Amino acid sequence: MKQSAYARAGVDIHAGDDAVELMKAHVARASRPEVLGGIGGFAGLFDASALARYRHPVLATSTDGVGTKVALARDLGVYDTVGWDLVGMLVDDLVVCGAEPLFLTDYIACGKVVPERIASIVKGIADACAAARCALIGGETAEHPGLMGPDDFDMAGATTGVAEADELLGSDRVCEGDVAIAMASSGLHSNGYSLVRQVLLSDGKLSLDATPEGLARSLGEELLEPTHVYAAEIMTLLRQVTVHAMSHITGGGLANNLARVVPQGLQVRIERASWSPKPIFELVQAVGRLDQADIEETLNMGVGMIALVGPEQADAALRVLGAMGLDSWVCGHVDAAAPGAPAVELVGAHPAG
């Protein structure tokens, strides 16, 4: 059969069709009653009449990618985990506003469409969407020969959620005396990988197949550990406990992200002694000879999410999160800020691992 001009240019439309067929079963698991139709159309459809139950609905939206962690997935040939990273970076930016994630769309660009590879990536996205109770209603797979190598790929997405206007979380609700509740990260999540890869892997320092001292599995497995998706747990928490503000700890580290919800005149003091970061953080710091400020402004240091609640709500918050199997603890308090003091101050030292 004669090869089309587009195929001769390096774009295989039939491979794209095969990828869609392979991913349909995965996408079907990541749905909601409001979704209209299936994948394969020109646009994803969502029945907005569901918003009628809100008194004053406010839509929230977020867009993000996975970053250079995809290079590790490519190098290791493991593609079903980075979808969790994408979904986590998207939906957990919504829930910290108090918004329920409704739907998500993804975009995958690659040098060559390998249907099984694309389906594996989408499987991870769909599984994470199902865990977050968010519908995956559409996406795009783009083949870019000449721009990307055959094994190269990148991914991004966008998500939309909804909240009641008078229930939005934020700095205007934070009060002196509030308690900071930390929620454990599953590892590095998907931020800081440009530094992590440079520190651990450049010049052949460490091998992805090796198991460095202190780790219980290979470095590659540790670095590909998926982002924990907090959305469903946070929505349950918000239904049972009064939360004033939340912060998703992503690029920029704990202090920089938490500062975004601290009002002027107040300060959150975080006690490092309240938790021990996982060994991967110590490894990055030791191999890279990074000082505390450098690593803390880059990595989450074991905390993926922080909630600020009134002191009378702290025990209830810990009970709710614990009942869902999420490791959480009191990590600090909100106090009046001294003149010129930072919005967030980390004090003390982590316990020895």
UniProtKB/TrEMBL annotation:
Gene3D superfamilies given for it? Answer: PurM-like C-terminal domain, PurM-like, N-terminal domain
- Quote the subcellular location field of this record: Cytoplasm
GO BP, sorted A to Z: 'de novo' IMP biosynthetic process; adenine biosynthetic process
Q: Name one Pfam family in it.
A: AIRS
Task: Give a Gene Ontology cellular component term annotated to this protein.
Answer: cytosol
* Broad class of where this protein is predominantly found: cytoplasm
The pathway that the record names for this protein is: Purine metabolism; IMP biosynthesis via de novo pathway; 5-amino-1-(5-phospho-D-ribosyl)imidazole from N(2)-formyl-N(1)-(5-phospho-D-ribosyl)glycinamide: step 2/2
Residue ranges of domain PurM-like N-terminal in the record: 56-162
| Gene Ontology molecular function, alphabetical | ATP binding; phosphoribosylamine-glycine ligase activity; phosphoribosylformylglycinamidine cyclo-ligase activity
Q: From the UniProt record, list the reaction(s) this protein catalyses.
A: 2-formamido-N(1)-(5-O-phospho-beta-D-ribosyl)acetamidine + ATP = 5-amino-1-(5-phospho-beta-D-ribosyl)imidazole + ADP + phosphate + H(+)
Q: Write out the similarity annotation.
A: Belongs to the AIR synthase family.
Name of this chain's protein = Phosphoribosylformylglycinamidine cyclo-ligase
The scientific name of the source species is Propionibacterium cyclohexanicum
